[in-house]
Design goal:
alpha/beta; 4-stranded parallel beta sheet; 15 helices; 13% strand; globular; binds adenine; binds zinc ion
């Protein structure tokens, strides 16, 4: 199994919060996992991506030092290895971890070290995607994230992303940032077509995005869908997350299987295992219950391999590993 789209802060094992909060000197609102879960997971009646994103405040407050970022990345990689993933591209936004004075570079290096440590003794390989954030006053921080991605590409970092409130800060406003990323040859994906419509996806493609985070609203525009299929743009789809953020109203309306059958390069991912209370196995189980065949499942992994931000020779080795397990 492969997961190309999961956020570190939204995917931490809940038990780990007691250790992280103690290390960080942060008070938790509950003393046991059951009590803590409502603060870490999206509510059943979550209304929008904006409400969903509120669940990141607590994890981010517990990740403000190299030690906690290391522990978090280690804990997540260990969990992914235990679950049987062979490859995961974990992502996080280094600029959110500077409240106590860390530089972006220090935050990134701590996460790289944690991922390396956590996957020891497992079959898991990892990459790290750096998220820039949608916002009004963080142009410099985003440019710094892109500069760090350029500096550390191939040395623990594999790509760049844009995350955050898509409906409030449209994709078209980030042209300068991704123009720079393209000049530096940094592979990038952009969250688009999740809380905003086809224009957001179109803007991301015009910047040169090779992959789209979510992209569910591609179905609203026939010409755009044809382009996405023709160019085999990787769609990083995350079903449970889409239901929680109301990008999609109901499970049976989710377009993942339909898009796969139309020939789009669909992949299946978790987004935020803890916020969404899911795992990659759960996401697959749901797709199978909706009628996904073994052949279609194989296609998902082929799409994930093709879309991975990895050099070709590493993709080939990973492909052999994946096929062994099918
Ligand atoms: N950060 C974490 N999850 C996200 C999502 N689904 N969309 C945008 N930003 C996010
Ligand atoms: Zn995401």
């Amino acid at each position: 199994m492969i997961d190309l789209h999961l956020h570190l802060d939204g995917s931490l094992p809940p038990e780990l919060f007691f250790k992280l909060a103690a290390m960080e000197g942060v008070g938790l609102p509950a003393g046991d996992v059951d009590g803590l879960l409502p603060y870490l997971t999206a509510p059943r009646d979550c209304k929008s991506l904006n409400e969903f994103l509120e669940k990141f405040a607590l994890p981010v407050s517990c990740l403000q030092s190299e030690e906690t970022l290391f522990e978090a990345a280690r804990g997540l990689a260990k969990e992914l290895g235990r679950e049987g993933l062979v490859y995961a591209e974990v992502r996080f936004a280094p600029q959110l971890h500077r409240q106590k004075g860390l530089t972006q570079r220090q935050a990134i290096q701590a996460v790289i070290r944690g991922l390396e440590k956590g996957r020891e003794g497992t079959s898991l390989k990892t990459g790290l995607i750096l998220c820039c954030m949608r916002g009004r006053d963080n142009r410099e921080e985003n440019l710094e994230t892109a500069a760090q991605a350029a500096a550390l590409l191939g040395a623990g970092v594999c790509g760049l992303d844009l995350a955050g409130a898509e409906a409030l800060y449209p994709t078209r406003d980030f042209e300068e940032l991704f123009c720079k990323a393209r000049k530096e040859n940094i592979p990038f994906t952009i969250h688009a077509g999740e809380a905003d419509g086809p224009d957001s996806i179109r803007a991301a493609l015009s910047f040169g995005a090779r992959r789209i985070g979510h992209g569910v609203r591609v179905t609203e525009d026939k010409a755009l869908l044809e382009e996405v299929i023709r160019k085999q743009v990787t769609l990083e789809m995350c079903v449970t997350s889409n239901l929680q953020t109301k990008a999609v109203r109901e499970g049976r309306e989710h377009p993942a299987l339909w898009l796969l059958r139309q020939g789009a390069a669909v992949t299946i991912n978790t987004d935020d295992m803890t916020v969404c209370k899911t795992t990659i196995s759960e996401e697959l189980k749901w797709l199978r219950s909706m009628g996904m065949t073994r052949e279609e499942e194989r296609k998902l992994w082929e799409n994930a391999l093709k879309g991975a931000f990895l050099p070709e020779e590493e993709k080939e080795a990973l492909g052999r590993e994946v096929r062994l397990r099918l």
